[in-house]
DNA sequence: TATGAATGAGATTTCATTCAT
DNA sequence: GATGAATGAAATCTCATTCAT
């Protein structure tokens, strides 16, 4: 699992010699993740985390610099995965395959991200919550979108446009629509996991279909006055 | 203005004799709104609100039951507007006009909601933040979607489907896609007001076009294996 | 009393409108001073201070930024008095009088500082303790010796040397000896107030006599091999 | 070496079989001494000591009963040396030599103590700091002045007075002036080792000269009204 | 009505010390 | 003997709320 590797890389300082997350750290992170997802970061106390993790309060601070350090340890690995992977997929789909079609690209993207969301519901709930709460975390999330990645994304979109596969709108708008559609799915998944009656395959089909049709070049533009 | 009426209804007890919001209350609400939008409810202290409003801390508690009461006074009016209006629009667009087309409906909806978002950026930022942070506020938002409104929405969508104007997907999925697209716009608008380079008219055009194309009935379905 | 004025000037921010230290602040400072003098800053808890002052713990932080802010409020006024006053005395004694003698100067200086120590035993105990404990407070004390004051002191000493009233040693050494003699008195006074059997007048006489004889120009130098 | 013997006596239990201080103990003491001199006992944590010493935190407690035990191990040897030696010197100077002069006595005393201070700067800084901070350590230091030693000192001073070599003041005052002058030197040496521009020989000369002149019998007393 | 000093429960964090390995 | 993860008591500080003026 790439996420676990990422955590290891990021928190090497506080990990055991062999580069493993310790049992205690796992228990703390698991307890905190569950609580942060249930309530919110601010509403969860360190005492509560320690209790749920079955360790002493001091142990939290032996293993993480801060209460905030625990939050970071939960968010960082996901944040370092979500966007890079997204754009990687995008890259692969277009460069590798013979079929340089919007179809292929979008299906690949949606499939991947939907699977990702399903695997990481709790962490994503925490990240979502922080994203909307805190200018700094928001900046951190946006900071993941490095200029290189953006440039890469632009290249891909420009190619698809040239190939007549993508509607000729500003790239930023296209990205926004892409994110919106995936994000909307994510939000429902994360906040109301129980409501979800459609299976994954079907969901991927709808989202992809919606995006492909929404972003294909137009035969005749809509008129708004 | 429905907002003012709502606040009045909610805080009738503490309003001036003439049933108006007092100057002091206005200053407190304005200060709190600005601060809650900048940071988050939890990160803003009552001291800070009082300072920004230019009143004493105690004055907050003469005018509102609670710190939470201030938040409520900010959220309530918007929450009682946003969804009802949305569905109203939907209703009007379809029932009133001769042109019972997806075009007409979506353009009307998008135009209205985009204008609404532009007028209420700060309040929406607060609501967004609370929505993702606080189970109860989330429930409150979702509670606005009363069964009747949902039923109404379903009627509209079914009609459009029958008229061959709307793709034949589950209504919940269609609603999700609608919300996603509008919500994505909202999020960008609200969190990154400075980034926005497209003017409103153009934005409405793109969003509408995207939705119409994405939700029109298919000639040939996309194949996913 | 110039000390009280100084406190007011320095802590104007946290004082009442009329520039007075409030009753509460007085009680907190008195309690803290007594405790810091008894034990040491580190060994005294905020709970303890609050209890002794008869206020709630939170009240401390309502009136002072910090636990350290309380310490500052105790130390600063003394620190802003002790050295300036010392050198002022020195200045007046030499410049004003006709008798520009070492006698006059030293008697004035010793008299003044001994009286000062007697009035401010507790505060001086706290400052002494901090001076030896903490690089920063030490720097703060030394920071009081502004270049101008030092220059002034040098002028005075040079004049006395020229007048054949002062031994021709490096000024720094002379200052050190002056401080040592006064400081030694201070330490005994502050740490063992009960031991003191000599009255103030007598003490001034001994210290002055010792200094005058020790710092008068030599007839025949001592030989050390 | 009397210091090592003292540590051995005090920590006999935790010493190696051969009664020697172990390498580990040396490293811990060295690290702690440096840190206590830099900051203060209270401000230095056991973690910090362990880090600087290059051992585990637990190791501290295998070698010393306490954090306080480390401090004791640093202070005890000096404390058992400083006063006894001082008074020993005093004794020798007067009893042994033919020249029972104040000169001889003071030069011997100053020379010895200045050399001592130069050798033990760091430890003395720690002791100074503790002396002013901690009632118990202060008592311990003063406890070193046993009645016998005091009696001995009084004998010496009385002899010098009888010989017309020492001013006829109360012995306690004379002792205080002696301590002040040496202490003032010590403080400067210990707190501002870098400021010191005079060499040791010169310093001894000044201090001795100052003391001899200050404490010689007067021809005509100073008049203070 | 408005004030702002006072409150005290509760939050996070530190740190000397223990103990299983 | 050495380790270092775990401990938990205690310390400092925050903050919504109350209440006398």
Task: Briefly characterize the structure.
The first copy, chain A, has 225 residues and is mainly α. Chain A contains 11 helices and no strands. Chain A starts with a helix and ends in a 10-residue tail after the last helix.
Helix and strand layout, with pairings?
The structure is a homotetramer of 225-residue chains.
Chain A: H1 2-10, H2 23-38, H3 46-53, H4 57-63, H5 67-95, H6 102-119, H7 121-133, H8 135-143, H9 147-162, H10 171-191, H11 200-215
Chain D binds a DNA duplex (21 and 21 nucleotides) through residues 22, 24, 45-47, 50, 55-63, 66-67.
Domain HTH tetR-type (chains A, B, C, D): 22-82
Pfam families (chains A, B, C, D): TetR_N
DNA-binding region (chains A, B, C, D): 45-64
Core attributes:
about 220 residues, homotetramer, 2 domains, Tetracycline Repressor, domain 2, disordered N terminus, 11 helices, Arc Repressor Mutant, subunit A, DNA-binding, mainly alpha
Structural features, described:
The structure is a homotetramer of 225-residue chains. The first copy, chain A, is an all-alpha fold and 225 residues long. The first copy, chain A, folds into 2 domains: 62 residues, Homeodomain-like (Arc Repressor Mutant, subunit A, Orthogonal Bundle); 143 residues, Tetracycline Repressor, domain 2 (Orthogonal Bundle). Chain A is 72% helix and 0% strand. The first copy, chain A, is built from 11 helices and no strands. In chain A, helix 3 packs across helix 4, helix 5 packs across helix 7 and helix 5 packs parallel to helix 9. The radius of gyration of chain A is 20 Å and the shape is elongated. The N and C termini of chain A lie far apart (51 Å). Chains A and B meet through helix 7, helix 10 and helix 11 of A and helix 6, helix 7, helix 10 and helix 11 of B.
């Amino acid at each position: 699992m790439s996420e676990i590797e990422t955590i290891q890389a990021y928190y090497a300082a506080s990990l055991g010699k062999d580069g493993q997350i310790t049992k205690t750290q796992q228990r703390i992170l698991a307890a905190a993740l569950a609580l942060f997802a249930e309530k919110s970061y601010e509403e969860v106390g360190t005492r509560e985390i320690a209790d749920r993790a079955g360790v002493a309060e001091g142990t939290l601070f032996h293993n993480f610099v801060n209460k905030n350090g625990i939050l970071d340890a939960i968010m960082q690995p996901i944040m370092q995965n979500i966007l890079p992977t997204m754009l990687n997929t995008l890259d692969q789909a277009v460069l590798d395959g013979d079929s340089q079609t919007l179809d292929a690209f979008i299906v690949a993207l949606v499939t991947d991200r939907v699977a990702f969301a399903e695997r990481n519901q709790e962490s994503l709930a925490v990240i979502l919550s922080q994203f909307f709460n805190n200018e700094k975390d928001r900046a951190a999330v946006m900071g993941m979108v490095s200029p290189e990645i953006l440039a890469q994304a632009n290249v891909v979109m420009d190619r698809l446009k040239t190939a007549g596969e993508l509607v000729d709108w500003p790239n930023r708008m296209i990205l926004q629509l892409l994110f919106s559609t995936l994000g909307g799915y994510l939000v429902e998944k994360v906040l109301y996991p129980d409501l979800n009656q459609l299976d994954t395959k079907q969901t991927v089909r709808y989202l992809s279909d919606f995006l492909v049709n929404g972003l294909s070049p137009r035969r005749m533009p809509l008129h708004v006055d």
